[in-house]
Structures are given as C-alpha cells and as structure tokens.
Request: fold
Amino acid sequence: MRCTVTAAFLFIFIAIASASDARAQTRAWPERVWIGVSGGVQPSSNDFDDAFETPLHAETERATIAYPVKTGAAIAASGGYRVWKGLTVGLGVTRYSRRSPATIGARLPHPFFDSQFREIEGTTSTRRSETAAHLLVGWMLPVTDRLRLIVTAGPSLVNVEQTLVTGVQFSEVYPYDTAEFTGATTKRASRSATGFNAGADVVWMFSRRFGAGGLVQFTRARARVSPGEGRTISVDAGGAQAAAGLRVIF
Reply:
C-alpha cells in the first residue's frame, strides 16, 4: 500500500511540474466545463481485525476475525466549472467493491470440564463497498494544445459498507473433546465518515470536445462500523485509485 500511495503522489508531482513549464503558464484554457467518467482499480490494503466474547457452557467463548480488504475494481465520475482563470470547482463520485474471505478462529469451552478449550477455525465470505462523494477544488492547466492537466483536492464524504461476523457456528458430538467449524452469522454494517482527497487528471484531447484521461486520486477517511451490542470497529477507508476513461470539455 505504501508503494502505491508513493507512486500516486509521485505521478501527481511530475504532472504538476511538467505543467508549470513557461509555455503552459502563457497558454489560456478556453473552455469552462469538464466532465470525466473512468474505470480502474483501487489497490487497497485496509485489512483490519476484530475480537469478541460470548457466554458458552458457563464460561466464555472467544472469537477472533481477520478481515482482508484487497485490490478491487473502482469507477469514478467527476465534473467541474472553471470559475476564474485556471481555478475550478467541481464534484466527484467514486465507487469501490470487493468480496473476500474473512478468517475466523474461536476458542470454545468444554461442556463438562472447566478451563478445557477446543480450537476451531474457518472462513466466511465478506464484502467491502465504499461510495465516496468529493468536493473538488483545483487548477486547470493547458500543457499543450492537446494535453491538459486538472489538479484537484478537497474534503470527501465516504460511506463504508462492510460484512461483519457476529457469531460463530460449530458442531460437536459426545464426548465433546473436539468441535468443528460450520459457519458464521453475519450482518451488513454501514457508516459514513469525512476525509480528504487529492488527485491529478491528465487529458489528451483527440478532438475539440472529446478526449481520453488518466486519473490518479488518493482518498482517506476513517469510519466506525458496528456489529451490534454497542460494539464499534474503526476501519480505514479509501486509498489510491488509478483509472482511465472518457473526458468531455466545453
């Protein structure tokens, strides 16, 4: 993840540096409105863990869960208006979703003997989805007659949806010295959180109105999702995104 974020910001820095060439500074951006639609990838690694305890056989069952949040498909749509010189204000929306298996471990008390535990382990399918709305304040720079650059940053509102494990299912038979994992009970939790975004969109105009763009954007927020019973889990949301698609400028 660190390498991905570093590469994203390096890309932005190079794009800004190239656009600050003296030729770019003297060239005016004639259009007012820009719209972009892109598809790409979010190389996320926002893995997190959880643990909870429940009463069992007059003792305590303890469960631990490792949730992977891996690379997944992302889509992005944005648009803005040039309000003064190169200054632009716009809005953007991104969507990321990925299904991954969570690893579950549980320590089960024996029904007959105190302090004699059985260990079980298994997996269950979980899904992470993130939908983010971004306020984009930026600068529009014409590098050449065909090559354009839009650099943006601003606050973001990120809605996180996460499948959470709420219970462990198992089977056991007499004399109950061992148990077997059979599944898990889950719930879909959702929570919104505020964060920030920064990105750069490099656009190559192949006609007067239409072009193709490559977008690199970084978003970060931290949300607290709840599996119930008053518990909350703090999870990181967002990350670097790389996408490409159609651009319309007029």
